[in-house]
Amino acid sequence: MEHSAPHHPALVLLDELAAEPIGPAVSKSMVFDRLLDLRNLIGDKPLLVTFVDQLLAAVPGATMASGDWWKSELKALRITTGDALCPEGVA
């Protein structure tokens, strides 16, 4: 079933990230890059920017983060962002 309205670019990015294979560990710099990409896409939503900023400050590990942690955070980001950008539940 096709949606009549396109998804917000932030939701598209999160869906693409969730669809990528995620190993047991992910590069912390990749996580930062993706979160900054997301932050740029939601710049007009201060509460979402704050949520992403808090996540940026909490990325675990010195150079690598747990793949399970990243999967969990992507899921939480998708839910939070979807709720904020599409409150009618059409995301």
Description of the structure:
- Mean pLDDT is 90; it is low at 1-5.
- The chain has 4 helices and 2 strands; from the N terminus they run H-E-H-H-E-H.
- 62% of the residues lie in helices and 7% in strands.
- A two-stranded antiparallel ribbon has the order 1-2.
- Helix 1 runs antiparallel to helix 4 and helix 2 packs antiparallel against helix 3 (46-57).
Topology:
Blueprint: H1 9-19, E1 25-27, H2 28-41, H3 46-57, E2 64-66, H4 67-85
Antiparallel strand pairs: 1-2
Helix pairs in contact: 1-2, 1-4, 2-3
Strand content: 5-15%
In percent, how helical is the residue content?
55-70%
Strand tally = 2
Distance between the termini: 13 Å
What is the makeup of the main sheet?
Answer: 2 strands, antiparallel
Name the overall outline: globular
Number of helices: 4
pLDDT under 50 segments (min length 5)?
1-5
What is the succession of H and E elements? HEHHEH
- The mean pLDDT is 90
Order of the strands making up the biggest sheet: 1-2
Taking Cα atoms only, what radius of gyration do you get, to the nearest Å? Answer: 13 Å
Brief summary:
The chain has helices spanning 9-19, 28-41, 46-57, 67-85, and strands at residues 25-27, 64-66. The protein has 91 residues and is mainly alpha-helical.
Tags for this entry?
single chain; mainly alpha; 62% helix
